[in-house]
Amino acid sequence: MRYEKAENILPNNIIELIQDYIDGGYIYIPRKDENKKSWGENTETKRQLEARDKEIFSKYSSGVSVKILCEEYFLTESSIRRIIRNQKKYG
């Protein structure tokens, strides 16, 4: 998100109308629904987490214990169990 000076992008009558509601404050203008991006769309994070989760499930399926997976991936037992459950359901 970046800040823009209202004077540089809005007509004076719009600025005056907004000032009736918030004079000198900050206001957030949300994106249009059709321009919104889903979480992880701009980065590789989502893809990396999906790959990690598949790897965890594969190791679990091969006999690696939840405790060992916790230590290896620095996750809590409940997180590992949630990943396993989700991989069984959707993976």
Automatic annotation (TrEMBL):
Domain named Mor transcription activator: residues: 12-89
Source superkingdom: Bacteria
Pfam families (UniProt xref): Mor
InterPro entries xref list: c-mor_Regulatory_Protein, Homeodomain-like_sf, Mor_transcription_activator, YraL-like
PANTHER family documented for this protein: MU-LIKE PROPHAGE FLUMU PROTEIN C
Name of this protein: Mor family transcriptional regulator
Organism: Clostridium punense
